[in-house]
Amino acid sequence: MGRGKVQLKRIENKINRQVTFSKRRSGLLKKAHEISVLCDAEVALIIFSTKGKLCEYATDSCMDKILERYERYSYAEKVLISAESETQGNWCHEYKKLKAKVETIQKCQKHLMGEDLETLNLKELQQLEQQLESSLKHIRSRKSQLMLESISELQRKERSLQEENKALQKELAEKHKVHRQQVQWDQAQQQQSSSSSSSFMMREAPPTNISPYPAAAGGRVEGAAVQPQVRIGLPPWMLSHLSN
Fold first, then answer.
1. Cα–Cα distance for residue pair 205/221, rounded to 1 Å
2. Closest by Cα among 201, 221, 200, 198 to 211
3. DSSP at 46
4. Is the whole model's pTM more than 0.90, yes or no?
5. What are phi and psi of 44, to 5 degrees?
6. Are 226 and 209 in contact (CB under 8 A)?
7. Separation of alpha carbons 181 and 187, rounded Å
């Protein structure tokens, strides 16, 4: 028959307790040695009996080295845990602060919009009124500044357009002046050409009022008709002048 399940509780009999301690201690030391050899692990085992007797085991008998390594690891882990806890606590605190600020800003915004005014007392309402008046002053001041800047810009554009208009008018007047001079010069040239042509035709025309018969002294030749004087190619005003 197999052994029954051992109930884990303190052995009341002192002798049996001592015997069990010796057996289990030997088995525990054996298991620690086996895991160290089989798995190439660093093992440190410390056992104190009820009488304070120390029993220990360390891989390659390097108990101090293993304990120092344990202390470094334990300290680093504690620092990391502490830092994480502190960071988490800071984030929680910062979140609460930001949440409170957002709620305050939202409440102020509602008050400025004229909402949720029932919770404000007379002093708070007066402060809100002063704040709104101050805001309106700043808004109107900024509005006036922008309007003045816009007016100045429009005036500058107006001056620029007026200068361009004056320059165009001056250029147009010069063009009209040149055109009038050109027309007058063309008319003068045309008149000069007409006068030269008339003078040339007067010099070339033969006399038509000379009789083929010589006139007797003091008398007229009978039967000889007097031909009128004709000027070919001359204008009427010039013919009347010549006849005179």
1. 26
2. 221
3. E
4. no
5. -130, 125
6. yes
7. 10
**CB 46, CB 58: distance < 8 Å:** no
Joined tokens for residue 42: 């660093």
What does 48-97 look like in DSSP terms, one character per residue? E-TT--EEEEEGGG-HHHHHHHHHHHHHHHHHHHHHHHHHHHHHHHHHHH
If DSSP codes are grouped into helix, strand and coil, which group holds residue 141? helix
β-bridge partners, 45: 57
Residues near 25 by Cβ (< 8 Å), separated by ≥ 6? 47, 55
* Digit-coded pLDDT (tens) for 159-191: 999 999 999 999 999 999 999 989 889 888 888
- Give the amino acid at 159: R
Which residues, 6+ apart, have CB-to-CB distance to 59 below 8 Å? 36, 41, 42, 43, 44, 66
Tokens 């007058």 belong to residue: 184
First CA to last CA across the chain, in angstroms? 184
In one letter, which amino acid is 179?
H
Give pLDDT tens digits for 17-46. 889 999 999 999 999 999 989 998 889 998
Residues in the chain: 244
The Cα 127–Cα 193 span in angstroms is 99
